[in-house]
Amino acid sequence: MNNWIDRALLDAVAALARKAGDAIMQVYARDFEVSLKQDDSPLTEADQAAHRIIAAGLAGLIPQLPILSEEDIESFEGADDQGRYWLVDPLDGTKEFIKRNGDFSVNIALIEQGEPVLGVVYAPVNEVLWMAARGLGAMRIDADGEKRLQVREHQPGQPWHLLRSRSHPSPDMQAWIDRLEQHDEVQLESVGSSLKFCRIAEGTADIYPRLGPTSLWDTAAAHAVLTEAGGAVIRFDGSALSYGDTSELLNPWFIAHGRGEIDWSGF
User: Looking at the predicted structure, is the pLDDT value of residue 42 above 90?
Assistant: First the structure.
């Protein structure tokens, strides 16, 4: 049952994301050092500061649930007996943060039985927040206030507005785009971090295929937002992208898309 997931919980998680974003921006405003993790991905003090804020805040929420954070994988011992856990990327888009192009976000998701049932994505440079929870819908909050989100439905004959990663080009991805362009016109746009999901949830883009590595924490929060806005995130076999197996931290290839029955089996 998800009756314990309410607007108060969603607002509490959103407040944590904003607080982490403030810490990130303090580092963003000055010089900072960059180190490399064992997998050669970059790490900054902003990642670590945001992680500490989020982990402490989530630990104070009721019920207390296990936390899987990109910056503290070792402490995670698995979901609780109801399959629930917090899935966190304290700074999604560290490469974009280092490049200072603004395309990075704070991602916090609640997973239940493999599904993202609550998600908050906060872009601290523009102070824009996207959030959603099962049964509550998806919202964008910015200086103009709160707006409910709904994906758009791609119309036959119209170009596909396709989003791709800004920092992770892929030959497989380009080959997939080439096949799509044999059928329809495609408008390409490069966007960093999980903001691509949010753009589709807002109805300003149609599709984001990912034919390359991503981790569970990269996608879960924005996945929740897109789902509540009427979209979906599917694997290439047509099944829903799941977060139930935390023994494997990498996602399979997937497609995030807006409304409508879409058969991508030919691609």
Answer: no
